[in-house]
Amino acid sequence: MSDRTEADGPRARVSVLSGASRATTALRRRSRGSRHSRKRVAFMHYGYYDVAFQYFVEHVLDADYVRMPAPTRRTLEIGTEHSNDYVCAPFKHILGDYVEALEAGANVLVQFTGYCRLTYYGELQEMVLRDMGYDDFEMLNFSFVAGRSFKDYVTYCKRVVNPRLSVPAGVANMLVLFRMVEDLDAYNDYYLANAGFEREPGSFERAREAFFDDMRCCATMSDVNHAFRRGMGALRALPTDKPERPVRVGLTGEFFTVMDPPSNLELERKLLSLHVELARAITITNRFLRYNEPNVRRSIADYAAYDMGPTSSLTIAAAKRYMEEGFDGVVHAKSAGCTPEIDCMPVLQRLSRDRHVPVLFLSYDSQTSDTGLDTRLEAFYDMLAMRKAKTI
């Protein structure tokens, strides 16, 4: 945990929704001298990145972060009820998240920009929410300033969230945020590669939750660096029974579904329970912080001559890399109707034929069966294990 104490000054509130009740927990320092009415800001659920979202709200925007518990079936049902049948599943998940965020007391909702229909989701979701009767909120929709100057981003954040936002402090804290995201992804890489072989059931998950809690208390670059070292040290110290030649599976696919556990029905947890070594190259670090589209395109030139949109190039490049590194199988996860990832499927099939590595295609919508997914994953694992046994 952080070495900071109450002597460091008062802290901002984080709202937490628990059933129908609301609780507030003091977690972050409040900026001294701030006289504006502090906004209560919420993001959609997106894997473990809520840790970084909280930092962005509290240390870059200088606002209060509304942190919600894990989504339930109700979350998806709300989003589905108020969405068109043909819209992709992430729209429904995010809309349900927004409704529960407003119920938790949020008055600002954040939506990213994107390279597909995500660009239009924020504006459409705002219209749906207002039609549902939610009027007392604003949307911080970065699609409105996508591609514009840094000054435009700052002006927009000041107008919607915090007119007293400090630009120097915000820029410095954005650098801390980038490091935090890189560390979260690096930690998860090790977790996926080893959690399936833990000697004590649940030990890796408990260590990961402790690491996330530690990260949530970070305010400076030094805090983040120390939290990462502590977290990795604790994770590496856990005993495992990992075989010399484990079954190895690589995950790829649509940027939201493959990374968000509620959206993919806990795909990673299910695969880890089968005692496999997992890898997932689709992360914010790999897609944004360290991404080089020309290099990625060159690496898949034999299979794709054109950019098919969003994360298509990375989807194909990740699958190709897994196969080159000797992985036993690849799982491609996407939401139903995701056109760019549908375009990737013939390319992945060709890769599978050329490299003799099986690919399991999973498509999710609001009606996808959890039991059906279990059956497909178990059958896929059995096939990979039998193929691997024949190569000994």
UniProtKB/TrEMBL annotation:
A Pfam family:
HGD-D
Superkingdom of the source? Bacteria
Which InterPro entries is this protein grouped with?
Answer: Dehydratase_Activator_Redct, FldB/FldC_alpha/beta
> Which PANTHER family does the UniProt entry name for this protein?
BIFUNCTIONAL PROTEIN [INCLUDES 2-HYDROXYACYL-COA DEHYDRATASE (N-TER) AND ITS ACTIVATOR DOMAIN (C_TERM), BIFUNCTIONAL PROTEIN [INCLUDES 2-HYDROXYACYL-COA DEHYDRATASE (N-TER) AND ITS ACTIVATOR DOMAIN (C_TERM)-RELATED
What's the protein name? Answer: DUF2229 domain-containing protein
Name its species. Thermophilibacter provencensis
